[in-house]
Amino acid sequence: RGFHPFWCATCALGFPHQVAYQDHLRSHIPCNVPGCSYAASEQLVRIHHLNIHENNLRNRMSNNILHQTRPM
Description:
InterPro entries: Znf_C2H2_type. It comes from Rotaria sordida. It holds the Pfam family zf-met. This is C2H2-type domain-containing protein. This protein is mainly α. It has one domain. The chain is built from two helices and four strands. A hairpin with an 8-residue loop joins strand 3 and strand 4. It is rod-shaped.
């Protein structure tokens, strides 16, 4: 398949030329949640955000509601 000296650390794709590698790097969009290091295409970041961050937020909110003390 040829020699690929430029490798993407995010997705492990190899590129024979630096220009193609640099163009590819621009396709990785970082997740905008502080402390999250996930990066991928815009569509995959959107799916990641829904599955990871929004589900975690919903779960935390549900747990808070379930664990609140209710007056008798």
